[in-house]
Amino acid sequence: MSADAASPPEVPRTPAAETFSQVVVQIFRLHGLIGEAGEKITRPTGQSTARWQVLGAMGEEGSSVATIARRMGLTRQSVQRVADVLEQEGLAEYQDNPCHKRAKLLVLTDQGKAVLQQIEAAQIQWANEVAKDLDVDALKTLGHLLVQLEKRLLCCSVQQE
Length: 161
Fold this sequence. Notes:
The chain has a domain of 112 residues: Arc Repressor Mutant, subunit A (Orthogonal Bundle), CATH 1.10.10.10. It has six helices and three strands. A hairpin with a 2-residue loop joins strand 2 and strand 3. It starts with 14 loop residues before the first helix and ends in a 6-residue tail after the last helix. It comes from Deinococcus cellulosilyticus (strain DSM 18568 / NBRC 106333 / KACC 11606 / 5516J-15). One of its GO terms (biological process) is response to stress.
């Protein structure tokens, strides 16, 4: 396309959109830092952040791969790959799902529960250190805002051409 080709008119950002855009950049940075911390937290157990997400999302009764994927905002295929590895390593097992004939439940084994407990203990130490001097009410407000942003993002998808 030539430089003379018609381009869409530039729409200025509203003040809220400008602030939101800055927040998105900060969230990208935080995502990297949290992922890095997660890898350090899980490394002593021989796990990864991706495996931790799936281990933690199974819950007490287990969950289907599709449910875990929806809950975590991940693709079903990526959760399936991790779930299969967790099963091969004896940290999880597939069981019949009374609510669905084909979608098995992924359930923590005793070994999986022990690994998750180790990871959670390390996460508690890390969270206590990170949150040490932060204002609890401000963190709660941030949590509420993040939930609102999540809901907005779920209903306001980017338009593809």
